[in-house]
Amino acid sequence: MKITKIFTFDSSHMLNGHDGKCRNLHGHTYSLEITVSDGLIEAGAKAGMVMDFADLKTLVEQHIIEPFDHAFLYHGANARESQIAALLEGWQMKTLRLPRRTTAENLSVEIYGRLKAAGLPVCSVKLWETPASCAEYSEPP
Ligand SMILES: [Zn+2]
């Protein structure tokens, strides 16, 4: 059985070296679909549920929304993005250093890994960068 909950967050980023407009600093209102796969809970207050949607919300807000929302997401190995992050941090502005270039594809992998590490039985992360463009990362078979 699978359940899905949808979240939104706002972040700025850039793709240094991109051959189009995404090389510029810009932002997105991301829509994030988290799908969890597990058996149904058999007894007690949560009987008939894969997971309480309220518990899923708490976990995703703590591990994803809190660090990502209204932050400058940047690739820590990229010199130019790191320079911008250092400038922002000097002004006490929120940044989030990531180990990958901040494409929608890579962000979905990053979010998947963070939720898995937090103990969530996540099976798919779908990240919408615009209402028409998304990347999805699913559990390898
Ligand atoms: Zn973008």
From TrEMBL:
EC number from the UniProt entry: 4.-.-.-
Family note: Belongs to the PTPS family. QueD subfamily.
Gene: queD
SUPFAM superfamilies, per database record: Tetrahydrobiopterin biosynthesis enzymes-like
Enzyme class: lyase
Native species: Neisseria musculi
Keyword vocabulary terms for this entry: Lyase, Metal-binding, Queuosine biosynthesis, Zinc
Amino-acid positions noted as binding Zn(2+) in the UniProt annotation, renumbered to this chain: 13, 26, 28
Keyword Metal-binding tagged: yes
Protein name as catalogued: 6-carboxy-5,6,7,8-tetrahydropterin synthase
CC cofactor note: Binds 1 zinc ion per subunit.
PANTHER family membership: 6-PYRUVOYL TETRAHYDROBIOPTERIN SYNTHASE (PTHR12589:SF7), PYRUVOYL TETRAHYDROBIOPTERIN SYNTHASE (PTHR12589)
Pathway info: Purine metabolism; 7-cyano-7-deazaguanine biosynthesis
InterPro entries recorded: 6-PTP_synth/QueD, 6-PTP_synth/QueD_sf
